[in-house]
Amino acid sequence: MLLENKTAVVYGAGGSIGSALAKGFAAEGARCVLVGRTPGTLDAVAEEIRAAGGHAETAVLDALDEAAVNDHADTVAARTGSLDISVNVITQDAIFTPLADMPVAEFARAIEKVAASQLLTTKAAARHMVKQESGVILFFGGSDHNQKQPGLGTVQIGMDVVESLRRQWACELGEHGVRVVTLLTGGIPESFPDMPEMEPQKQAIADATLLRRAATLADVGQVAAFVASDRARTMTSTQVNISCGAHGD
Questions:
Q1: What is the pLDDT of residue 70?
Q2: First-to-last CA distance in the chain?
Q3: pLDDT-derived band of residue 218, with 50, 70 and 90 as boundaries?
Q4: Whose CA is closest to 22, among 1, 37, 192, 47?
Q5: Which residues are registered as beta bridge partners of 79?
C-alpha cells in the first residue's frame, strides 16, 4: 500500500472533501486522524473507514485554537511515532458580495479566518516534519490566474491567499525534506447539497471541463493518496490539476 505506516491528520474530516481525503489515505494504509468540531460527523466517517478495513480515530477541536492544535499535533506524533501528512480543508466563510459593495470588516474577517486556520495547522505539522526530515502538507482548492468569473467575492481571494502560503511554506520546508502541494479543482459536484436548485451549478462545472465530466470525491481521495506517497517524492511547490481540464495552461 502507498501509505503504509504513515500518519495522516485531516482537518475538516467530517465534510465531503475531508472525508474523501481521509478515505483515500486510509485505503492506502495510512493511520487517519479525523479532526473537526462536530463529533457525530467525524464518528460516521471513522466508522466507514473502519468498516472498509482502515484505521481511523477522531479528535474534536477548533482549528483556530492555537494551543489545542499544537497539543493535538504533539500528541499524535508522540503516540504514532510520526506525523507524515497534514491537510486542512476547513471551508472559509464565503461572502459572494461584489467587492465594490463588500463591507471592509466582513472581508477582513473572512480572509483572516482562512489564513489563520491554514497557518496554525501547517505550523503544528511542520514542527514535527522538520524534526523527522520528511512529510507532506496538502492544500485543496487552488488558484487559477486566468480566472475571469465575477461575483466570487472572498472565495477565490481566499484560495489565492492559501496558495501564497503554499508557495512560501514550500520554500521554507523544502530543505528539510517536506513537500507542499495543492490539489487544484474546478469544483466537485458531489460535495454540493443534494437539492434541485443546485443541479444547474453542478452541470456547469462539468460543462466547463475538457472531459465533459467533473472530478468525483473518489478521484479526490485517490489522487491525494498518490501525491502524499513516496511515489510522488519529486513533487513540491506546485498544484496538481484535478479539474478535468477546467483549468489549463
A1: 98
A2: 32
A3: very high
A4: 47
A5: none
Query: Could you tell me if 129 and 176 are in contact, meaning their C-beta atoms sit under 8 angstroms apart?
Result: yes
> What's the pLDDT score for residue 195?
85
Tens of pLDDT, residue by residue over 4-22, are 999 999 999 999 999 999 9
- Burial-class residue 124 by CB neighbours within 10 Å (0-12, 13-18, 19+): buried
- 87 has which bridge partners? 10, 138
Residue 144's contacts (CB-CB under 8 Å, 6 or more residues apart) are 184, 247
CATH number for the region 7-239 comes to 3.40.50.720
Grid cell digits, residue 42: 467525524
Q: Classify 205 as helix, strand or coil.
A: helix
Sign, Cα dihedral of 115, 121, 123, 125 = negative
Contact 4, 32 (CB under 8 A): no
Q: With beta carbons less than 8 A apart as the criterion, state whether 209 and 246 touch.
A: yes
Mean pLDDT over all residues of the chain? 94
Mean pLDDT, residues 92-121 taken together? 91
Which residues touch 145 (CB under 8 Å, ≥6 apart)?
none
* Rg value, the chain, Cα: 17
CA neighbours within 13 Å on the CB side: how many for 146?
A: 5
